[in-house]
Queue: 2 jobs
Job 1
Amino acid sequence: MVQVSRYQLILMLIWTVLGTGIVTMPGTIAQFTLRDAWVAAFGLLLGAVMCSLVSLAHVRLFPGRSLTQAAIDVLGPVLGRMFGIWYLAYGFITMATIGREMSAFIGISVLPNTPDFLLSAIAFAVSMYLAYLGIEVVARVNEFIVPLAAVVSPVLFLLAARLFDASPFQPLLGDPAGAAWHAAVVPAFAYGLEFSIALQWVPALRSPRTLPWDILIAGAISAFVLSALVTLTVGVLGDPARYLNYPVLELVRAIRQGKFVERLDTLYVMGVAITLVLKLAALQLAVGEAVKDVSRSPERTWIPIPVALLGWSLSNYLFRNVFDVTNFILRDVPGYFLLTVVLLPGALYALRTAQMVRTKRPRRLQNT
Amino acid sequence: MSLEQDILARRAAEVAKQIAKRLEPCPDLRVQPWSTQRDTGVAVWLEGLVDADKLQEALLALRDSGGPRGRREIPRPGVATEEVGTLSAAVRAVLDGCAVIVRDGASSAEAWRLDRVPARSVDRSENEPTLHGPQEAFIESLSVNLAMVRKRLKSPRLKIETFTIGETSPCQMAILYEEGVVKSDLLREVRRRIAQIRVDYVADINEVREFINDPRFSVFPTTEETERPDRVVAGLMEGRVAMITDGSPTCLMVPVTFAMNLSSPEDYYMHYSLALPLRLLRHLMFWSSVLLPALYVALLTYNQDLLPTPLLVSVAAQHSGIPFPTVIEALGMMVAFEALREAGTRLPRAVGQSVSIVGTLVIGDAAVRAGLVSPGMVIIVSATGVASFTLPALGLVQAARLLQFPFVMAAGLFGLYGILMLGIALLGRMASLRSFGVPYLAPVAPNITRDMKDVIIRAPWWMMQGRPRQFEPVERDRVPRHTAGKWRRGRRWRP
Amino acid sequence: MTKWVTVSKRQRAITAALLCAALATGCDYNDIDHLYIATGMGVDRQEGHVALSMDLVQPGGAGNPATGGSASTQGNAPDWIVSAAAPTFEDAMGALQAKLSHSLYLQHNAIVLFSKGALRDFTMIADALERNRQLRRSQLWVVTPTSAEEVLRGATGQSEPVSLVIRDLVDEASRREACLASDELHVVKALLRPSGVAPLAVVGEGPDGSPEIEGLAYLRRDGRVDVVDRARLLDNAWWLGRTFDVRQTVAWSEGGRQAFVGVHWLRTSTRLAVDGPRVHPTVRVVWRGTGEVERWQANEKMSAESFAGLEESICKDVKHRLAEALDHARAVDMDAFGLANACAEHGMNLSEGDWKRIRVVYDIEAHIVHGQLASTTPFANDAKGGGD
Amino acid sequence: MTSVWAVLWAVLAALVDFRRWVPGSWREWLAWFLLTSLAIGVAIAADLHWWPKLGPLHLLDLAFSGPSAWLYGGQGVLQEE
């Protein structure tokens, strides 16, 4: 019996959101505001709250069922599959986005001469292997990474904090509220809503009832970490944070401690690569579950390969360059994700409630 | 063989002839007729396996007593007896080191266990040496080994079940466990897997290990092998199952986790504060014995930016003029080092040590002087070797030796990125392994906080009142709670 | 148990291919001895061309115990300089690479040495440097009044690559005057802020050819440079932040007679605070210093009272120095001390040139901790010395 | 008897376990075929540099840039680099 504990779930969610979060979010936030960047990072919490509400409804109405299973339950095999396919498209596009972000990031920062598709192919292959091994293994790898991250990231934080300078934040909350909101949209709707992939993992959870609470905890921790990171980035880099693609990478590049610690950015890139692979694996698990439900298959071992293959080729095809990715995330993702993981499931649950009320009412009458 | 042939003949001489025919040619078979006032018969045994003096004594006693009439009437001072009813059983008994006593006119014979199987005496542990603590090690005799365990664990709940495995050459095998502590599912699983073993003969417990292993091809040891009775007893008290086969000085214990492979019995015999740095060191050394050459290759060929400038300049200076690419250089050196290491173990002990030392020094130095290998590479490869020597579990050493090669290749392909990706895949693989149901990376992943006090740190004994939860022991506490109450609160004896 | 499979030819081929593939190397494979490691870069301007000089490490050089005597063709120096000129920065890099037999490796570049002339095209070069991911963000940007190439070439033959020597020089100096830490991050950050002026360390060729710190240069975003020599370095450094371990000679008038007291500042700090109305703000310069007396040439006995008197005259002196530095900055039209920044942090965006009209008040407090050593030496009273 | 190649192959098969990667029922085959053919088609399209004017990304953009802009606060405030 595959079961994921609460601790593992929270860790998986945190890595899932922060995986790309630490790469791109500081950059997208800094495009809108510098002074209020630390506030904007808490937009993530907004997304977490929305996901938590959705999952609250989900675990009440469909204990032990994944989102796609729930859709098939409510809408029937045909319409339910349609929803499943819509959800699959969402999963694949997200996967492609992450894959493209990752290959671009690694290509730019450590392996400039290696073709991007090769870099993403390796990452997809490894994450496919993890997804193949199952959610339990992915959860354990997440757990294993934690002590390492717990040692390495504070060191990077402290080393960078020497260069910190509070002047970019003064006067406090000096930017108009609109700018802060614009900056918060992407963390809230593009990254915060990614917490919802936990709905696909529900069948494997040890205690699905606590899922909303776990999402909130994970959201709070990620928002806090992200805010600290954004604060540090803006404080150290100052104005240049506006035009740099990967501000955190530049932050780490700036670290110099004596003659021995001079360039740590490769280490940071490697750390990010780990989290990205874990994120890819987590998404593939969710998508694989959807494929399994849509094709009504009892097995899941055949799924990872085609899923990873499609994710990989889409990541090469959909986004021709990095700007496509940034544009997509900034322009389309907020609305797209809001519809797919909040509004549509919301409608689903409303429908279910209506169904239940309709079926329960006669029964109650009989009872009384 | 048909049933008819398997029946013992009524005439003892005929039986002896039949046995001899089965074993022929067999110069060490001895047949000696005996007689009492009432009976006559022969004794059949293999010379060398049977204690001849004892046998003659027993035969003498037999003659005085009037011969075997029934089992109970024969006085056999100090001799264990078994009845054998068939010819093949009689043959097996002879091969097993018994003297078979056949009586004329009887339908069954008796096997007298008078074995004097050649065996060495109990000695110090060679493969798992420690400075402190008990020193003795198992030998190749099952009964002696069991006695050594019994000697340490005087618990009535210590249970020993025996099995016979091996089609051609049957071999006694025992499983040991502490009843009331061990999880019953674990025990059932062990029995089930042992029942499935199909093998002609058992040379060493390794055959058992490979048959009952969880993953078929994993390089990681998912069973613990030890030659130390003290370690076995400690394992039994944690709710694990031990297996000993006759003829092997190694005991197998299941389940085992990755972290346990990095703990040495020494950790428990020293002051607990010393265990922390040593265990940290071993964890570090395991990973460096896997990754060090790969990291060196990656740093030299892809990620030079990670090296501090002075170090980079010095490494570049060392490397200038070396005709090979770094990957080839690394692989070549690693192969050479493995060859030296193998030579060191295979050669007679007196020569072996000098070969490995002289080989590393002389050949390494010559290679550096000739400009074939850079000094840095020699340092790295030998540091890798030294790192692997710090690991207490031999199985893990072999795993590290194997794994360093793919990692170097990955480093040659994609630098640090390649190492990292292979590393994650390896981690996934390790996380998916189980040893008799226990996740291999426990208690780190999945996280079992209570058990963390014996992973990197070794908590003082008075804090380890509970048995490791990862093995799901039936009795969770080593000492019943009411007696342990005051210790549990962390109070200790004060004068 | 184990079910053996019979293996077809195709599977055999796949296995063999996988085994062989494991021995290949990737696209970014770049062995360490096929690199020319650059530790420093000099930027000059030659008749509209950008001239780049690279300080390349020579691994076989004298500084390396590893190779010992095996000297290469360029002699025994730890480094050698290659120069090339081209109309743009990128072309110059290309031209440089064309002269080198291995690829140029920039990731260990420690300094960029600009000549004063090169800074006129500063924006173009800075953009190229800022966008080049191979270069470190922590590399130092340093100015030389003469030619960068000469500074680099003048010093080869030491035991360490010259650019590392320069880096250590600047590092050491920036431990005393924090404003000299002119790494790329700080310079770019300063240039992008409202004041738009960044301080850079100035390095020149000393009398024996080895580099030395010559002072401080202010660089404005448009490429204008103003060099402050070593004599006025302290005044400016006090404006620009912390100093540690600096020495000052204070003229102390005592009953009509002049005396000189040597003060050793253990640490000083300066910050700007903006007060007053939004229309006419006042910038308060808060200067705090902790020091000890190193030379005591006054006739008066050392006492708490005389220390109080001393602190007063120190305040006057510091204020004078700061005011002078500000006057100079105003004269050359460079908001070197970040008055506009301070106002912006206070929520006021000044228009061009407004910073000159801001009222500046000085809030200076010196704290002399002790000076026993200075007064107890037998030669204390006889020692002659003057202020500078 | 087993050959060396069979052993190597078995090791590989145990490590990557590809025999379990094959779909079982016709539904699984259908889903497998759809996903894989889509993946191959897309990969070929990328290799041939065939990006239609109205690609999937543009469709998404058409559909969702409006709602996203609404989330941003009503008007098209999106800055592009």
Job 2
Amino acid sequence: MVAYQYYPGCSLHASARDYDESVRGVLGHLAIKLEEVPDWNCCGATITPSLNQLQSQILPARNLALAAENRGDLVVPCNACYMSLKKVQHNMVKYKEIREGVIDIFSQAGLSLTGMPEVRHLLEMIMEDVGLAKVKEMVTKPLKDLKIVSYSGCQLVRPLGFDDPEDPQALDQLMEALGAKVLPFSQKSHCCGSSLMTTQPELAFKMVDSILEEAKKVGAEMVVVTCPMCQLNLDAYQGQINNKFNRTGQLPIIYFTQLMGLAMGLSKSQLGIQRGIVSSNKALEKIV
Amino acid sequence: MSDHKIGVYVCHCGSNINGVVNCAKVTEEIGKIGEVVVAKDYKYMCSDPGQEMIKNDIKEKGLDRVVIAACSPRMHEPTFRRALEGAGLNGYLLEMANIREHVSWVTKDKEEATKKALSLVKGAVKRVKLHEPIEEREVPVTNTTLVLGGGISGIQAALQVAEAGHKVYLIEQKQYIGGNMAKFDKTFPTLDCAACILTPKMVDVGQSPNIELYTSSEVIKVDGYVGNFTVTVREKPRYINHDKCTGCGDCASACIMKNRIPHEFDEGLSKRSAAYIPFPQAVPLKAVIDDGNCLFLTRKKCTLACVKACGAKAINFNQHETIHEFKVGSIILATGFDLFDAKRAPQYGYGRYANVINGLQFERMTNASGPTSGHITLADGTEPKSVAVIHCVGSRDENYNKYCSRVCCMSSVKFAHLVKDHCDAEVYEFYIDMRTFGKGYEEFYNRVQEEGVHFVRGKGAEVAQIDGRLVVIAEDTLLGQYREIPVDMVILNTALEPRVDAEKVAQTLGISRSGDGFFMESHIKLDPVTTTTDGIYLAGCCQSPKDIPDSVAQGSAAAAQSLAIIATGKVKISPISASIDSEQCAGCRICIGLCTYRAIKLNEETLRAEINEAVCKGCGTCAAGCPSGAIRVSHFNDDQLLAQIEGVLA
Amino acid sequence: MFKDFTSEIMSYPGGEKITACMQCGTCTGSCPTSHAMQYTPRRLISLIRANQRDTVLQSLDIWKCASCYSCTTRCPRGIKFTDIMYILKNLAWKEQSKMENKNIAGFYNAFQGLIEKRGRMNEAELIMKYSFQTNPVKLLEFAPLGMKMLLKGRAAFSAPSVRNQVQLQKIMKLAQERGGE
Amino acid sequence: MAPKLQLAIYWAAACGGCDVAILDTDEKILNIAEAADIVLWPIAMDFKYEDIYKMEPGSIDVCLFNGAIRTSEQEELAKALRARSKFMIAFGACAAWGGIPSLANLTNREGIFNTVYKETATTINEEDIRPDTNYPGPEGELHLPRIYDRVWSLDQVVDVDYYVPGCPPTPETIWTAILAIVTGNLPPKGTVIGGTKSLCDTCEREKTEKKITQFKRPFEIIADPKKCLLEQGLVCCGPVTRDGCGHRCTNNNMPCRGCYGPSEKVSDQGAKLLNAIASIMDVKDEKSAQELAATWEDPAGTVYRFSLAKSLIYDYKKGGE
């Protein structure tokens, strides 16, 4: 059994519980073992870096230090956490003053940085380590005729991501491997507004609306996401946004792992599918 | 102890050196060294009086070695060598210490600079003692020229050499000459019709008794050296007998692949057959068979309708490739450029949105003999009511190419004019800086401004398609506002890039490329036509992006270089070269792979390496790599270098 | 100290290349929120280079960055503008007097406070804290969504935290003490 | 009958292998004994310093000096013997170019002491005691030799007449040297007794154009016995090393380690080899060069295994402290 270290991030223990459930379900099904990083802490997302640069290095660095105690790559399902962890790793290599600052602070708190694991997004790991061939092999219920758009979001592909920052391909390829019909979508890596949704909703509403409207126009039945933040903004606020801009129609926002699970024959409840604010029952009728 | 008589001359270079380095102090200190009989400093050592001073000292004081502390030897070593020779001393008994570029220009602290200058001069003194007199050699020149590339600059160069009465081999990779210019409609700033000015030159090439044209051909090997190259050329089979083909096009009409293959000459905007005439003015005007798409050649399954249709019986599927070998005195490289593939910048929607096109596609669209017969049309056949031109796609951008592609500002303005001229749509130009530097260019820009084109200062950031309409997103930086401007058509004015096979060509010819990937000239200002390999010259966009006037000028300049060595009849070869001590050579072959100029070969009988000193450039790479120390570079041998280091460190 | 604002920005990781800007506006054109900014990203660079420190740090525009990194990816001169936005926010935050928007300050305070205290985030708790710090009426606005989330099992009310809180608090405090750079 | 040769054999920083090598001349040792009186040979016979100091200048005909110079005692003895010997011979790689002991020059005295007296896993030295040159013992103050900051070859501290290369020198080489001295058939001063070509030159393995795609260590592959070892990724010092050893290593399918020192035209054995190997690494850019270089275990210890003391990167001309 291949083993990875798992950094779920705060959301997956709360608002994105469904993501966590489907991740564990699918990877279990693929005989991949996840070991949760012991005593991990919040990555600081985009908030801590806005307030205090050193703290924003310290938070992810502590996770990297804890993860370094075990073996295996560090797999991260959340785009924001992925970017935070990867960026700190990058900074620690590139900037001597950051590296020394972090190590010095750690030494005063009994923490040592013995090494750093490879930080990889869950999608990256599935594409590169599991591979499309294996995924196709595991599909028992192809998502035939399910029309989707894949929405990678920004921090999966920028600035240090593994896919093309303008026109990411991995999620499209994975969804096609599951049998879904992937529609052309120009906003694959546009931004969902992230935390602006709370502080400046007028900005975030417009961003989400633009994404949802294009998805509807190209005829998508669902939007597939790789990040709990994207999911929350697109799903939970969809009602309010529709009201504000007088839009009709609702689009379910689903995690890619949930569709993987369905295609591989796992049950809806096992994958947390009922937890979407916008129900996906209708869209999924034809496959389940 | 050797008893040399060394003269040391420290140049002030006005205040260039003396402003930082205390030249008098350096002179005084160096004069204390025993073998230095003369030490002088002077305002301009390279001036006539400066040189006279050196010559007189050599004659009067019997100097046998000279050290000059001045600028880079690249600048004035030949000058001072001539001075030594004028006084009867071998020019290689000279050593220059570069106290300008290496000291005064890069050091702020005056004391440090003086100290460093003194060290360098001491090194030079130690070294010059070990210099040996060496002689330059002369070799005869073959009076033929090979031009590689049949675009406008290659054509210009070939015609000029041919007109001077000398033989030219013109090698073109495509089936026809004319290059990119043949695709244009109008040229800036005069709006001359490209075909009208280019076609006569193409015809001249075809008719000149001094030009042997080889199309569908490429250079696969170059041996030899300046004045005496042997070039091997592979001519691919064309499956058409050129003596019989009349260029009538009957084969094209008959071909069962008709209208099924994207036509390269039309940048994919039209479809062609597998047998076709490239374009009506093509030289040579002969049919071409596309071996990648011909059903007979690829699958042996075809009714051979073309063969039946050809009245001249010109089609011959039994042709094979031919290898030619030419002896030439010089080579002119004019291989042109590739257009940046706009798909590499997906944010502009090229390849995704039908009405996003590149500049060459627009050229074909406006060309009267092009796919739309000169009409500017959208994918649905209608005329656009608004057009955006985005500058700098793939240029001036760290993510793609850092350099400015130089022609796009002007061609964009030309596009704007042509749109106004053809269909009077609104035109938006998205630019970073307008660079209209040539003769008549600013005036042309001014004229197009007056035609009512909207110039938006801001780089197009993205092209979106909203409700079926293209939208260019950019900041109007003069307004300081984010803008979304809806248009019907977007023209991406993409970068000019080094050709995809530039590295291969550079290796075949043994020349270098600069950081941007274009072929490297030997001096960017004073020698932009020659390469670092003697006898190989550059013309046109293979050296850097340039417009037609500049390409033509460089083509002529390259021709002049080639004619110059033919006129002299002989070339001088630098005496600095490597030699192999066959007693010490172990035949390990390390040096052979290292030599960029292919000057080293293994003697199969003795199993020792041998150097062709005429080809050797004296770069020293082999000497550094030779593990047994068998290779020695004259004028740069280990003893001399170590002595210099010791002198500097002393 | 610093000669001017430009050298101050350049001294932080990510701010190095600010002088390379050629004012092409690709950043603004790529930014999903620049339409709502008084000073677009390109103008902010101009203002920094014109040494208008207060204008920049007092601007609410810097708090409109969503950290999507579009500007950074597309910048033709390799300027990491997202990182520069972070630097600007750091400086503005340190000089609190320059922070005017209560909502923004409240949210960032609430988030940071929770992390410093417990090391992990809880959205429900964050929203409550944020609302109390700014305007408790907000709670009513969030209530319907909160209810939905609760019903779907997506709200956790128990406060999650790291076990080694002492260690986490210590390293966060040390980082804070070092001037937040 | 001519008077017997007065022969001294001394060792400095060395492993003792050179002394054993003299015995390895087998029955020829008897011929040596016949031709020479051994006046000094610490490994085999009992001598005191006073015995040496008592000798007159020029009273020793030949001194075979093996080992490098790394302590004050060794330098002192080298000078004392030089003063009393007609011919001073740097015997073996250590005396000639510093040998393996001179790899210590990659660090300094402090670094070596740290390793030996502090950092090794089995060392317990809580008071951080370091060797000292003075020790107040019960019988009075004792003086110990001082260890130098770096290791020198013999000719960096005294004038040397001939060099006998090898680690250790082969019996054939030793015999050639002794024969030359006994018969008075002397080559020019400074000559290295050995071949005049490089080992690579006389090596019979088949050579083609070289490209190293991966560095290998001898235990990792079974090398093709017919082909050039360097081409198989084994770092062989043959190209830069003097021949005359009889190809003992390469004949046994092991790469040359360079113990016969730099060949005739090579001034810096390690730098030359490093240069040559860098030239044939099959790489395209800096990154792939770094990746390939990382597969090479201990480059400095490989190219400079026997000659670091003579490397140009140090101030190679001065000796002593």
